Amino acid sequence: MLLFLDTANLEEIRAGARMGVIAGVTTNPTLLAREGVLDTEGHIKRIVEILPGPISVEVTATDTKGMIQEAVGVARWSEHVVVKIPTTPSGLEAMRLLKEQGIRVNATLIFSPNQALLAALAGATYVSIFLGRIDDISWDGLKVVRKTVELFQVQGIPSQVLAASVRHPLHVLEAARLGCPVVTMPFSVLQQMIKHPLTDIGLERFLADWRKLQAMREEARV
């Protein structure tokens, strides 16, 4: 299983890379705007320098011709760039044509197994299921992930299911349990996965005992 960070923040990416548990990054226009990025190409290249894994960059065009033109330009930034294309009729056409050009696609804004199947058949490398947004409308996002993973396994589809719009550690854990090969998450969720009160208590106890032992050694020297 691969874990990606859903962020455009360089410090968060550096922290994830130092831990050795993050294999890639997903970005979108909202995340880039949040960081005040004016030079998208330069920013993506800096991300690649920090973490040379799959880096998803989203197009803003909505028509097939515009998506392809934008995707071809974005793909030139780095061999690590994966172009995010929305799963719409125009997007599916763009995915097919980009696949023919050898450009990897992350099919985004997927909310059903039907959409995931179509994106995979169109040639997407990743199909991103926005499970958190599905939960937001009182549906079961993890159920969509499970059905899609099972569908791809039964049909031998090589596209990778990517669980996106992750809101908490349980989403990550359950996606892993269901066999989802990739999960992308905010840095805050990664931090929550690491944190456990018993770890903090145990560490504090060990340190307290060590301080007591050091004090006993000092007294023995006297």
The parts where pLDDT drops under 50 for at least 5 residues are none
Q: What's the mean pLDDT score?
A: 96
> What's the CATH H-level superfamily name?
Aldolase class I
- State the name of the first-level CATH class: Alpha Beta
Q: Tell me the β content.
A: 15-25%
CATH topology: TIM Barrel
Q: What are the secondary-structure elements, in order, as H or E?
A: EHEHHEHEHEHEHHEHEHH
Task: Report, as a whole number of angstroms, the end-to-end distance.
Answer: 56 Å
Output the radius of gyration. Answer: 21 Å
SS-based structural class? alpha/beta
Oligomeric state of shown chains: single chain
The count of β-strands is 8
Instruction: Tell me roughly what share of residues is in helical segments.
Output: 55-70%
Largest sheet: 8 strands, parallel, barrel
Structural account:
The protein contains 11 helices and 8 strands. It is elongated. The chain has helices spanning 10-19, 29-34, 40-50, 64-75, 89-100, 113-122, 131-136, 141-155, 169-177, 187-194, 197-221, and strands spanning 2-6, 24-26, 55-58, 81-86, 105-110, 126-130, 160-164, 182-185. Helices cover 56% and strands 17% of the residues. Helix 5 links the parallel strand 4 and strand 5. It has an 8-stranded parallel β-barrel, surrounded by 8 helices. The mean pLDDT is 96. It has a single domain (2-195), classed as TIM Barrel (Alpha-Beta Barrel), CATH 3.20.20. It has 222 residues and is an alpha/beta fold.
